[in-house]
Amino acid sequence: MKKLASLVLLVSALLIWAMPVLADSRAEEILKQAREALGGEQQLVKIQGLSRPIPARVW
After folding, report:
1. If you average pLDDT over residues 8-30, what whole number do you get?
2. I need a labelling partner for 44 at 20 to 30 A (CA). Which of 6, 17, 24, 38 fits?
3. Residue 1's pLDDT band (boundaries 50, 70, 90)?
4. Is pLDDT above 70 for 32?
5. For residue 46, what pLDDT band results from cuts at 50, 70 and 90?
6. How far, CA to CA in Å, does 34 sit from each of 13, 17, 30, 44, 50?
7. 18 assigned to some structural domain
8. 21: Cα within 13 Å, side-chain hemisphere
9. Mean pLDDT of all residues in 47-59
10. Cα gap 40→21, rounded to integer Å
11. How far apart are the first and last CA of the chain?
12. Total number of domains in the chain
């Protein structure tokens, strides 16, 4: 029983340690897909800035 508990603890520790690595690779994949959806790296390089109109407040 102690061996099983030790094995479960070891596997849990490895999974906790690996989660940031797995999440980081998933985030990189999402960013890659977003760049492609916006026209690729060549289109993104052309962007000089971003702005949005500010709506007037109605009191």
Report:
1. 79
2. 24
3. confident
4. yes
5. confident
6. 32, 27, 6, 11, 16
7. yes
8. 5
9. 75
10. 25
11. 70
12. 1
- Predicted confidence band at 50 (pLDDT cuts at 50, 70, 90)? confident
- Report yes or no: 41 and 33 within 8 Å, Cβ to Cβ: no
DSSP string across the chain = -HHHHHHHHHHHHHHHHHHHHHHHHHHHHHHHHHHHHTT-HHHHHT------PPPPP--
Q: Which of 57, 29, 53, 34 is nearest to 44 (CA)?
A: 34
What length is written for the chain? 59
Two tokens, residue 46? 């052309």
Non-local CB neighbours of 44 within 8 Å, separated by 6+ positions: 35, 38
Residue 12 lies in a domain: yes
